[in-house]
Amino acid sequence: MNNGSFLLDDMKISKGTFYDGLFTLVTLLVTFFTILFLQKLFDTQTLTPMIFVLGVFLVSWRTQGYFWGIAASLVSVLAVNFAFTYPYWAFDLISPECIASAVVMLVVAIMTGTLTTQLKRQEKLKAEAETERMRGNLLRAVSHDLRTPLTAIYGACSAMRENYDSFSREKHLQMLEGVSNDAQWLVRMVENLLSITRIDSGTVQLKMKSTVLEELIDDVLVKFYKHYPNQPVEVTLPEEFILIPMDAMLMEQVLMNLLENAVLHGEGMQHLWLNVDVKGSQAIFRVEDDGKGIDPQRMGQLFTTQLSGQAPTDTSRSSMGIGLSVCDTIVRAHGSRIYAQNRPQGGAAFYFALEMEEENRVE
To answer: Are the CB atoms for 243 and 210 separated by under 8 Å?
Structure first.
């Protein structure tokens, strides 16, 4: 495991070094030929030092560390001395102009390298701090959402064990049904968390296959009705045969999360819709409800793994936006984006678009 990580780090370093060297070479060549062109165009050499200083600055700014900037400054000094200083096309390394040019370009390279290194370090620290903040928020959210059903399961099991003879058969079945529902919810919660961590870490490769739209929706509805048999879903699909390249299992999870989100959070909901429309080369998926809608203050944070940084104080299984974050992660992995809005008639709407197969595209 450690050897593998070392090999990956070595590959990243080698790749970065290669691109830095290539950028340095291309920049110096462009600088050199630009000066030759300007000399012929304006018949002057006054721009030569400034253009080489600009080239050294660009190399120091865009490459890692100090090495390539210093190397570019030394090469630039040699180039100026060889091609643009009398005697032409010969080295005169002890001239005062050469020494002064070398000092100026080295100072530019070192100062620029120092500034860019500091900026990159600050950006890295800021990104690490944000990652830690998000990790802490996610842990708080997960601890709350897992504790609620686990407490219910423990309470039901303890009650049945301690009062086995005093409960009727119907009461036992009712409590067992509650335990089963809580356990199923925990399984879906864990699946969502695994999807987020695996896709974000890049350890999961999408299994892209041409999927028939109707089959995808049928599979989603079968799973949905197992958990919510009393909640009807009004489905509208295109009449034509639609094929969409996707990871069907992950996309089922997206649609399940959106439907379940409407059931759990669409207070006052009477209707739930799942619609798919075709527009140009895309199939547009929409999940809508006529519930209370989305709090405008939460609209901008719906697809993050944590909405407020604090777990709620109630005992509801809220998922704290984790399910919607899974949806966003999966849809992004498919090269698209997911959006949310409040419906003018009341309720919420979530929608995203996927590219269809070539034969399904409408010009």
So the answer is: yes
* Domain 209-360 top-level CATH class: alpha beta
Residue type, 236: T
Rounded Cα–Cα distance for residues 241 and 221 (Å):
19
Q: Which of 281, 279, 189 is nearest to 227 (CA)?
A: 189
Rounded to the nearest 10°, the torsion over CA 299, 300, 305, 309 is -90
Each residue's pLDDT, cut to its tens digit, for the chain (363 residues) gives 445 444 445 555 577 788 888 998 999 899 889 888 888 888 777 777 788 888 888 888 888 878 888 888 888 888 877 877 777 777 776 777 767 777 777 787 788 878 888 888 888 888 788 767 766 666 666 676 677 788 888 888 988 888 888 888 888 888 888 888 788 778 777 776 776 666 655 555 678 899 999 999 999 999 898 888 889 999 999 999 999 999 888 898 899 989 988 998 888 899 999 999 999 899 999 999 999 998 888 887 787 654 333 434 344 455 445 778 778 888 988 889 999 999 999 999 999 999 998 766 555
CA atoms of 79 and 91, how far apart (whole Å) = 9
- Residue 234: in which H helix or E strand, if any? strand 234-236
Pairing assessment for the beta strands 234-236 and 272-279 based on DSSP bridges: parallel
Residue corresponding to tokens 């190399």: 59
d(CA 124, CA 116): 12
**Which tokens sit at 13?**
């370093």
- Residue 123 DSSP class: H
Whole-number Cα distances in Å, 294 to 126, 174, 265, 267, 341? 31, 33, 9, 10, 8
CA distance 361 to 254: 23
